[in-house]
Amino acid sequence: MPKASKARKPSTSISDFQKVLKSSKNIIALAGAGLSAASGIPTFRGTGGLWRKFDVISMATEDAFYENPSRLWQFYHYRREKANACKPNLAHYALAEFSLPYFRSQLGLAKDSKFTLITQNVDGLSKRALEETCTPEVIQSISEDPAHPPMIEMHGRVNDVKCSSPKCGHIEFNPASPICPALDGTEAFVDEDIEKTIAEDDLPRCSKCKALARPGVVWFGEVPYDLEKIDDLVEEADLCIVVGTSSTVYPAAGYAAEVQAHGGKVAVFNLERSAGDKKANFLFLGPCEETLPSCLGIES
Ligand code: BJW
Ligand code: ZN
């Protein structure tokens, strides 16, 4: 009788992971909400998935915005206030240090190794960690190669504001708190079943054409940012580090399998089991703010 083939279990060996890490030249990290959980930002699914009484996933669509822009802006105002009040955690800093070629060569990686963090997060914490870790000159030097930027925020940024008029589409970074007077204080309504109704004219407006503005994030059905660049990075990656994502939202959820399909390795860092992790080469279960720095060889 033919023997049933044994499914290979992901390795949990840190030293084996570090051997793979050192021999990798094109590394990507794919991050999700779990990366920012220790900073106090709620995740989307599971226990963090409600704002007031609403399912946060059902609010991430253009339809939800046009149905009730006042509610949506209160949701994003709350998210902006939260993100801007939170601080990066040890996992953000570990990835920021790993962005530095000097640091990677100290760890034993090739001098010309490449690394890009592709984050689905819109909170800006990875960027802040990088800005706190290196000088503007260093950030400029590691950003010189457009094909290998230190980071890509594929679902946009909560501090970006985008014109809702397709004719204009103006987008700008605006972290003002509050972004408009009518939203001031509404972040405090979180636990109460009360809702302010704000007239469209009093919501954020485009600074160019004065049309209603929307948050500059990517909702379901919209095309994420920098997809061509990401596709090239995924295609050449020999190691994909998947951090704190449920791996349920595409196209991001497909990247690890694509890396493995052309012979690259995948290492998953998550608090618990997540979609597709059975096929990973390495699996480190636990808080990524602890597992990631230690696996990357970063002392705290
Ligand atoms: C910890 C931890 C700790 C906790 N340490 N871990 C099939 C193929 C392609 C597309 C589709 C498809 N089927 C359907 C689609 C379309 C759709 C989709 O994927 N739907 C799924 C529901 C099936 N995708 C889209 O519409 C995307 N666009 C698109 O496909 O365009 C078409 C196109 C693609 C390619 C080429 C050409 C055209 C757009 C998706 C936009 C997602 N937007 C949101 C909202 C952003 C704005 C906002 O923030 O408000 O993005 S939804 C939400 O989910 C957010 C997140 O970035 C995203 C992913 O969630 P994430 O980060 O994984 O969070 P969680 O909460 O799910 O998981 C957290 C994890 O952390 C958990 O596993 C925890 O265990 C773990 N964790 N603490 C380590 N301390
Ligand atoms: Zn405009």
TrEMBL record:
One of its GO terms (cellular component) is nucleus. Gene3D superfamilies: SIR2/SIRT2 'Small Domain, TPP-binding domain. GO terms for molecular function: histone deacetylase activity, NAD-dependent; NAD+ binding; protein-glutaryllysine deglutarylase activity; protein-malonyllysine demalonylase activity; protein-succinyllysine desuccinylase activity; zinc ion binding. Binds 1 zinc ion per subunit. Residues 7-300 form the Deacetylase sirtuin-type domain. It is found in: Mitochondrion. SUPFAM superfamilies: DHS-like NAD/FAD-binding domain (SSF52467). The keyword rRNA-binding does not apply. Its cofactor is Zn(2+). NAD(+) binds at residues 32-51, 120-123, 244-246, 270-272, 288. Substrate binds at Y76, R79. The active site is at H155. Its main location: mitochondrion. Its EC number is 2.3.1.-. NAD-dependent lysine demalonylase, desuccinylase and deglutarylase that specifically removes malonyl, succinyl and glutaryl groups on target proteins. Has weak NAD-dependent protein deacetylase activity; however this activity may not be physiologically relevant in vivo. This is NAD-dependent protein deacylase. It comes from Schizopora paradoxa. The lineage of its organism: Eukaryota, Fungi, Dikarya, Basidiomycota, Agaricomycotina.
